[in-house]
Amino acid sequence: MTHQTDSLRRRLVAGLLLLLVAPWASSHAADAAPQKVLVFGGTGHLGSEIVQRLLDHGHEVTVFARPGSDRGRLQGLPVRYIEGDLLDAAGVAAAFEKHRFDTVVLAVRVKTRDIHFYEKILPPIVTGAKVAGVRHIIHHGAVGAGRNLERFAGLGWERIPGLLDLLKDQGAGEDILRAGGVPWTIIRNGRVYPVGTPPTGKAALTEDDSVLTPMTRADLAILTLGCLGNRGCIDKTFHVRDTSLPWPAPGLPPYTAPE
Ligand SMILES: NC(=O)c1ccc[n+]([C@@H]2O[C@H](COP(=O)([O-])OP(=O)(O)OC[C@H]3O[C@@H](n4cnc5c(N)ncnc54)[C@H](OP(=O)(O)O)[C@@H]3O)[C@@H](O)[C@H]2O)c1
């Protein structure tokens, strides 16, 4: 065999190997190319962890925040703000009209016990994102959302006032997102460790929708970054599995329901 044929064969084998490896690599991509990311809930505990990590990885971050939001957790960080309230559909639409975003992240928590909150906020987000050509929406939802509740019968969640209505609303929001025409990822959380708990590094996403383990917000943020630009996360609903943390968390009451 000539040297030329040998070299051609080596390049062909290398090319084939790359073709075999590439899909795996892209579905586990940790470092996406720099993106323009719009974060809803970026002033909150989880949201600010996500914002910090997005910036650490070179992404350009815009935070949609209410005028009166405490921006203390983002102090000194190079983020752009768009002021608005998620319950004002026109304000949400305007956010998408003025700027271009590759990815939208929702790390929102409803504190008003409004049982139609997600049903109200998802339509303008999805419509605005679609019109603006957003490539991916990553939504932090709740274990037990919609029909997923059936997986957790027997935990006594029905005894917690208002919880089932909130989970129904979470389910309605998820359905709106799935039907919206923008590639989506849902990451459901259920048992969240106290604010400031460092990451375990042991949390993983799973499509097993019967999983309910504790997790830290820091690990949720890491998992969010792992889904950025990662086609392995597209159109998937994930739960988080971290078996390294005891529950209830030390010092916390034995509250076991998602919020
Ligand atoms: N089951 C559990 O153990 C448990 C416990 C806690 C949290 N969680 C879950 O963990 C995730 C993160 O929660 P977190 O504690 O990090 O949330 P958080 O600190 O309460 O932050 C919530 C964010 O949502 C924003 N937001 C709420 N309503 C809004 C509106 N109408 N317009 C614009 N922004 C609005 C807040 O803005 P403002 O700054 O203006 O308020 C804030 O940035 C959520 O999915 C939550 O459900 C679960």
Label this structure with key terms.
single chain, 259 residues, alpha/beta, Rossmann fold, eight-stranded mixed beta sheet, two-stranded parallel ribbon, 35% helix, globular, disordered N terminus, binds NADP nicotinamide-adenine-dinucleotide phosphate
Describe it.
This protein is of the alpha/beta class and 259 residues long. It is built from six helices and ten strands; from the N terminus they run H-E-H-E-E-H-E-H-E-H-E-E-E-E-H-E. The chain has a single domain, classed as NAD(P)-binding Rossmann-like Domain (Rossmann fold), CATH 3.40.50.720. The strands form two sheets. The protein has an eight-stranded mixed beta sheet with strand order 3-2-1-4-5-6-10-8, with helices on both faces. Helix 2 links the parallel strand 1 and strand 2. The N terminus is likely disordered. It binds NADP nicotinamide-adenine-dinucleotide phosphate. NADP nicotinamide-adenine-dinucleotide phosphate binds next to helix 2, strand 5 and strand 7.
Return the string of H and E elements.
HEHEEHEHEHEEEEHE
CATH classification, class level: Alpha Beta
Strand order of the largest sheet: 3-2-1-4-5-6-10-8
User: Superfamily at the CATH H level?
Assistant: NAD(P)-binding Rossmann-like Domain
Q: By helix and strand content, what is the structural category?
A: alpha/beta
Mean pLDDT: 89
CATH fold title: Rossmann fold
Classify the beta-strand content into a percent band.
Answer: 15-25%
| Shape, per Cα inertia axes | globular
Name given to the CATH architecture: 3-Layer(aba) Sandwich
Helical fraction equals 25-40%
Q: How many domains comprise the coordinates?
A: 1
Low-confidence stretches: 1-8, 10-29
| Main β sheet profile | 8 strands, mixed
